[in-house]
Amino acid sequence: MKQQNNKAGKGPDSKLEADGRDHALSSVRNIGIIAHIDAGKTTTSERILYYSGKVHRIGEVHDGTATMDWMIQEQERGITITSAATTCFWNDHQINIIDTPGHVDFTVEVERSLRVLDGAVGVFCAVGGVQPQSETVWRQATKYQVPRLAFVNKMDRMGANFKKVLSEMQEKLGAPAVAIQLPVGEAETFSGVVDLIKMRGVTFSEGDMGSKVGYTDMPAELAAEAEEARAALIERVAEVDEELLEAYMENSDVSEQALVEALRRATIANHIVPVLAGSSLKNKGVQPLLDAVVAYLPSPLDVPAVSGISPKNEEQLERAASDFEPLTGLVFKMATDKFVGKLAFVRIYSGQLKKGQNIFNPRTRKRERIGRLLRLHANHREDVDVLYAGEIGGMVGQKLFTTGDTVCPENDPIVLETIDFPEPVISMAIEPKTTADKDALVDALQDMADEDPTFHTSIHEETGQTIIQGMGELHLE
Known about the structure:
Layout: E1 28-35, H1 41-51, H2 72-77, E2 84-90, E3 93-99, H3 107-114, E4 119-125, H4 132-143, E5 148-153, H5 162-172, E6 177-179, E7 181-184, E8 192-195, E9 200-204, E10 213-216, H6 223-240, H7 242-251, H8 256-268, E11 273-277, H9 286-296, E12 306-309, E13 316-319, E14 328-337, E15 341-350, E16 353-354, E17 358-361, E18 366-369, E19 372-377, E20 380-384, E21 386-387, E22 392-396, E23 406-407, E24 415-416, E25 426-430, H10 438-451, E26 456-459, E27 466-470, H11 473-476
Parallel strand pairs: 1-3, 1-4, 4-5, 5-11, 6-11
Antiparallel strand pairs: 2-3, 7-8, 8-9, 9-10, 12-13, 12-24, 14-15, 14-23, 15-22, 16-21, 17-18, 19-20, 19-22, 25-27, 26-27
């Protein structure tokens, strides 16, 4: 595994990073939020955007105002259909977030998001626990070896049971899940959490959407349980981290800093899944979750260098996370935007993608010039001149690229592993309301097929009917 050291916070490292960067590579986190439907992914995302200052009012799924659910169909149904991408900032770190759908019909959105992410947050319902789609998305994250945190949400709900969900994660998912927090109360008595790293209580203000986080002495009724849980945490991490084991053997306890550093190493190596608790709807637990994203999930420097093959001679190539390596990017999603037209979502692994630059597509063996580059915020777009290594953004108006294509320079090409998509499982015939609508229908269906590799359209040879195929009835709606 190629890893590079870098300082945290703002400002470039001269060996790895160009001067124009806002944040050092070590301070970038590319994460996805994954879950079963209705576990509270989008509500959690909305709180993240609010507390990080990205939005100034909290949107809600139930009233159709969620920032991340920006399609009309999403706002009507109260579910997430496409993967919305956004960038926010927390404690001098740049966090690029993709909020993925939980419904089984839209599993492909999760698949292509996880392919380009460095870490993920699995959201679980404190009542429902590990549900069927939880297992599917967890399996997808394991396939791409994505380090994860888990957030047990809805601790305020009747029937909430933190220990049961933790146990189900271990048994049903086979996850090395370890609590780094304990809830203070459950259901109507849920009031905050205990931080097992600091061994302090954590409280959230009531009058201002939980914006103020406070630390208190350990609640007396949880002191014994917290001591036991912290000992279990240290033991589990020490089993997979020699540095912590040595410190523990010498002193029978470890410092907060040593535990955080060891937990980070173990999480990035997929040996441990830290588990936190909260209620996003009640504004409790989200800021510590953001702290955990920064503390435990990897930067682009902490994951293996991306590998591919040379289209010239099929030689194996590696591209480390650096602005000064050759440009390497992967298009992981296509969309048609009513304001900017055709939009290609791209993850930059190495090098710099610049406005006006000629880029090469090794699949088509053709060059294309970059017109506009965007940083993405759900349905809002911010024009930028450069996307740097480790960033996720959008290319506007590219005609030669589609999902799974590699972005690289013509004089130093590379082909990354493409994204696998399942075949459609359901089909139906559709007709335009009038003959005059036929051409518009064909164009619209082709746009949908370009955006979604699991949506297929064709003309039936015998009947002449237009046939559409997809992953389920909701998908085809």
